[in-house]
Model the fold of this input.
Amino acid sequence: MKGSNAPPVVLIEDDREIRHWLRVVLEAEGYRLFFAENGEQGLTETAARQPDLVLLDLGLPDLDGVDVIRRIREWSKVPILVISARGQEQDKVDALDAGADDYVSKPFGTKELLARMRVALRHAALQDGAESAVYESGKLRVDLAARLVYLDGNEVHLTPNEYKLLAALVRHAGKVLTHRHLLKEVWGPNFVEHTNYLRVHMSQLRRKIETEPARPRYILTESGVGYRLQAN
Amino acid sequence: MRPDPDQLLARVQEQENKRTRGRLKIFFGMAPGVGKTFAMLNAARRLKEAGVNVVVGYVEPHGRPETEALLEGLEMLPVRAIEYRGTTLREFDLDRALSRRPALALVDELAHSNAAGMRHAKRWQDIDELLQAGIDVYTTVNVQHLESLNDVVSRVTGVAVRETVPDSVIEQADEIELIDLPPEALLQRLAEGKVYVPEQAKHAAARFFRKGNLIALRELALRRTAESVDVQMRGYRQDHSVEETWPVVERLMVCIGPSPFSKELVRAAKRMANQLRAEWVVANVQTPRWGQLPEGVRSRVYEALRLAEQLGAETVTLSGSNISAEVLNYARARNASKILIGKPAAPLWKRLWAGYILDKLVEGSGEIDIYAVSTRKAESAAPAKVRPKITPWRQYGVALLVIAACTIVGLVFHPHLHLANVVMVYLLGVVAVAMRSDRGPCIFACLLSVATFDFFFTTPYHTLVVDHAQYVITFVVMLAVSLTISGLTFRVRNQAAFAVEREHRTETLYRISRSMASAAGQPEMVKAAARHATETFGGDAAILLPDETSRVAVVAPVPGSEWVDGREAAVAQWVYDHGKRAGRGSDTLAAAAGLYTPLIGSQGRALGVLAIRPPGDMLFEDPERVHLLEAFASQTALALERTQLAEVAKNAEVEVQAERTRSALLSAVSHDLRTPLATIQGAVSGVLEQGTRLTPEQQRDLLQTAHDETEHLNRLVHNLLELTRAESGGLHLRKDWQSLEEIVGSALTRLEHRLLGRPLTVDIPADLPLLFVDGLLVEQVLLNLLENADRYSPADAAIVIRARATPASIAVEVCDNGPGFAPGEEHRAFEKFYRGSSAKGRGAGIGLTICAAIVEAHEGQIEAGNRPEGGAWVRFTLPLTEGAATAAAQEPMNRV
Done:
């Protein structure tokens, strides 16, 4: 499977066992893997290999994971996927707000990890080219150019803020967006603490596009972190 | 006889203090010019050559060539120049010395008084701080500067010495080196001009440096040195258990009054206590007349008491009208074996009249020895003249009116009354006056009543002349009776007032201690203390407590504690570090706005600082207020200690509880952890070892089993972590606005795999207000409830999630169609490690316990029961927060 065009990935992870099985799984998927056991080494590897993606464990022995993200972001836009344990939601939010693209919670299955990696790589590729103007998933269709939303072929009427909210999610479909990110994008930087706005509008938005708002299909809740629109 | 263990312990502590404390060596001399500084510098040079880090902190610049030669080559700290009334004073720079941290600092002239504006009023306080910082100090002092010898020296030499050092400083010295010089040699040096004498003191010096004086001073110095050697010797003997029996500790009691010689008496007592190696108590009896004494006389008593404290005595204020009885009672209560009292200076007639206290003491003393100490006539001190307070003329007016009224009553009834009854009316009037007025108006009323009686009621009428000799007896008896009655009434009244004042003080302390005792938790207690301090002392008060790094700061601020900042906080820090009072009205850092008192706990360690900023220019000079302040501080310290101990006890309790949980947990979960692990190991090793012999379907099946078991393990570990978190120090809530629908959705998504194919009803009203809760924890509650519902009911039985809003809360219910709780076991469900008898699959029985912990942390309630139609329900409520309802109204829903 290995080839010269295999996407290079830097894995910054101090646990040997996790490095081992990730190597097996990811190389089987056709990625070229470079390892770093700590933050400093990770920064060096990232600079030297110019990878397509960085997998970063937040619990490193030497550096704070969030600092690693900030330092990479000083000179690179490479997608960063964070690996962190459940129960450390605040760390994930900090990492995302510092510039990480997405996260997976330990313990995780390969299916979940590979899906996240694919989304991150696709978004990185899209940033260079044109943004896809139409999003489609199941019965939901969002036309960003025409600013129209359809459910099962019928137009759905949204308030301006509901639309802005949905559009933000569509532009990052498949990726988690933090509460802070969404509040900033829809209401502006002065409203990043007003989570109540977000909750109320999200609930109304779901009522309009989800068949069963308590068991959402399209806009998924990432507890303690934010929201994620199902990838198309 | 074996050494007393307490005493041994105290000695060990003393030695430990000394190990961290610097060593103090005093070069002790009888007079200036004996060569103390010279000897000190010589000793320092020897140490310097031996490689010790020696610094000269301060040496008097007398310009003696021999001294200056010795200073050569020693490191000198720059002095601090202080401008004072146009002249520049050179002072020892304490802060520089502390930051330089030498092993040994030389600081000349222990008795020196610092210029205004320095940290301490006295140099010995500077030195004490150096010692506390672990720096050794060499210093010099002359015998006339010793507090307890001060009066003897001035009596011997006729020269008053103002700068004094408390004896305790000398007593705590590790080494005293006597620099002795025969008087002849000193006079020789003086004649050769080798002794520095300031210009303005030439005259005094001539009086001072007389051979007779010098001999006396030399004797004093030698005796003092011998005493301190003796003390060291005893210490050595006690340490090493050298034969000799323990001396019985004697207790000496000293009575002082408003006499101008009280201070002298205190010093004499100190000397006697030293010689007897006795503890000593200085007592002052406040009689009902105390309040009438002029301010100057009262402050004389206070000064004497303060001096006694400085000299190491215990002081006590007694109250009562019978001085001798109070003194003897107290002496018996404290087991005092000797009572010291000044020889009376009052004239003989007064002594005979008032009943001389000394006689009464001797009379009632029994087994106690009474010593009368002679005091010389002080030239400066005027005798304590008891001058009553100026009585307002109003009181005389009232007396006049009362007697006039008596006269009118007498005149009206005169024709029908016997003269004796008229006298009674007047006596009644006198009593009425005595109940309200001071002494003067009382006597005035007595005299006036006799005069008017004579004028109006005795023949011949309307003259002061009497025609019958028996009237003279009537007048004398009437005067005597009225004076006695008025005197008694007056005294009773004063005593009552005095008792009220005392009671008020006691009550204040009682109230304070009660309110502190009832305060829940430290912040409440500290607030109560600060409030009471403000009420009791006036001005603004605050309590400062240390943080982990021993920096004190105002905690639980009450209004009016904002002034403790910057410089003031630095003073408070000093007080906390040194355990000594400082600030306005004290000897240390007197420039501060507030007075800072350390809160010393029972371990002798400062627990915090009480800061008081007195209103206006008032200072804490009145020792009664200082005593009250100290009592207040020690009560606060005790209360603080109590809350801290309670905290420690509570922590210990929590720890024990946590320990119990841990062990119970261990036994409960070891089974639950091992089972899935065994399954995973079995399945994976099956694939590894028999891989080729298994069909792809069989391999897949084994791996799927392993995968499911890891999920199960993951949930179990997560629950265990949550439980540990809840048990150890409580849950830390990250509250935010949350929609219940979203939380339910998230929980259902996470359990999607597990609930596959099960009928599920979600009944959540669309207009439910937002909750202000920790979303992740509430999701955990739902996860656990749903898992339980799944575990305890058949695979195809429906599960219902229902939510309802009440005005103040949201209630959430999870119901299943299983067998329900065993009757009577509903409430046990929330107990740790309880497992329903119908459990399907595995679980450590901690799910509901975690739910209860989380809901309670949110101030909600959780309960469980059985549905009438079968199956169990668990319901929890979460309180609503103000502002939730308005969240939706913030934004109008305009359509696109």
Remarks:
- Chain A has a mean pLDDT of 88.
- The interface with chain B takes residues 86-87, 89-90, 107, 109, 147, 157-161, 163, 195-197, 199-204, 206-207, 212-216, 220-221, 223-224 of chain A (CB under 8 Å).
- The longest strand of chain A covers residues 80-85.
- Helices of chain A lie at 16-28, 39-49, 65-73, 89-97, 110-128, 160-171, 179-187, 195-209.
